[in-house]
Each structure stands twice: as C-alpha cells, then as structure tokens.
Amino acid sequence: MTNKRCKVWNYFTLVNINEAKCTKCVKIVKFLGTTSGLCYHVKNVHNFTLNEDTNQQKCEG
After folding, report:
1. How far from the centroid of its chain's Cα atoms is residue 24's Cα?
2. 41 pLDDT higher than 60
C-alpha cells in the first residue's frame, strides 16, 4: 500500500497499486512506488506549488 504522507495525495485518489486519479482533471497518473510523477502532474499541469508542512513530507520531483 502507498504511504500518503506527501501533500500531493490531497489532489489524487488511489485507483490501484500503480495508478492514481487527479481530483482536478480526473486524469489517471501512473506511479511506481514514488510520488514523483504525481508531483510533476500537479506542478506542471495545474501549476500548483506543494509547500512543506510539519505533518507531511515535501514532494520531491
């Protein structure tokens, strides 16, 4: 199962073990154990910035 500590999960729902659905555009984005692809989608498609929070890990990507 995925670890949902990264803020990027605020923008996605888990579809299956390797795919998540963007809640903004409903695009299915594949990921392989890291959230880099999800972070890339949020930053480059939707132009959102993911800031570090004390309870969640900063997204790297």
Report:
1. 12
2. yes
Task: Check if the beta carbon of residue 15 is closer than 8 Å to that of residue 23.
Answer: no
Kindly state whether residue 39 falls inside one of the protein's structural domains: no
Is pTM, for the whole model, over 0.90? no
Does 18 fall in a domain?
yes
Residue type, 24: K
User: Could you write out the DSSP letters of every residue in 1-61?
Assistant: -----BGGGGGEEEEETTEEEETTT--EEE-SSSSHHHHHHHHHHS------BTTBBPP--
- Long-range interactions of 9-15: CB distance < 8 A, separation 24+: 9/35, 9/38, 11/38, 11/42, 11/46, 11/48, 12/38
What is the extent of the structural domain holding 18?
1-32
